[in-house]
Amino acid sequence: MTEQLKPLPDDWQRALVVMAHPDDPEYGVAAAVAVWTAAGKDVRYVLATKGEAGIAGMPPDESGPLRADEQRRACSHVGVSALEFLDYPDGRIEEGLQLRRDIAAQIRRHRPELVVTLNHRDAGWRPGGWNTADHRAVGRSVLDAVADAANEWIFPELTEEPWAGVRWIAVAGPEVTHAVEVAAGIESAVASLAEHRRYLEALSADPVPDQARRQVEMVTAPREDFGGRRAVAVELFGDI
C-alpha cells in the first residue's frame, strides 16, 4: 500500500517563497499559492536572480528586465503582490555566507511562519538527472538561513530584528511528505506560468498556453497517496 501524504498544516498566516529564478514558483507551487491567497493568507516571493541567463540568443541585459516583468505579471494571477529580487548572477549563484545573510535578512523582514523553497538536493526531478547549481545553492541556503534569522549573534550587522517564528520549511522536490489540495488553483497557476511567454517560446515551439497547462497539470496530477486529489506535494521540515 502506498504511504499516504499528510496534509500540509494550514494554521499560519504568512508564507515566504524563496527560489532562484523567475518561473521557479510557477513550475512548482503556484497552484498552492493561489489556494492560499484565496483563503486570505499572505504569500510573498523573494527570487535570487532575474533569470537573465535563461533565454538563448537574448543578451542578459535585455533578458533580465523582461523576465522580471514576466514574473510580476505572473504574481498577479495568484494573489502575490510582494516580489523582490536579490540580484545574484543567474547560473552562477554560490552557496555561502553572503547568500545565507541575504536570505536571513529577508526572513527577518517578512517574518513568515512558512518558508517555501525548491529542490536543494544533487539529484533533479527525473531519474538520472542532475539538479542545477542555482537550485542547490539557494535551497540549501534557505534551510540554513531560517536558523540564522532566529539567532541574534549570527549576522549581527543586519538591522532587521531576529525572527524565530518560522514553524515549517516546505521544499518542492522529488522527495515528499505532505501535500496541499489545489484543484481550485489550477487555472490561476496556468495563467501565472503562461505570463513567462518569451521564456517558454524559447523552450518550445508549442503554444505557450499549452506548455503552461501541460506543466501545471503534470505537477498537480491526482495523487493516489493523497486520496486521488490534485495536489502540490512537498517535503516538510519543522513541527510535523
TrEMBL record:
GO MF entry, a single one: hydrolase activity, acting on carbon-nitrogen (but not peptide) bonds, in linear amides
Keyword RNA-binding attached: no
Top-rank taxon: Bacteria
Keywords, in A-Z order: Zinc
GO BP, sorted A to Z: glycoside metabolic process
Protein name: LmbE family N-acetylglucosaminyl deacetylase
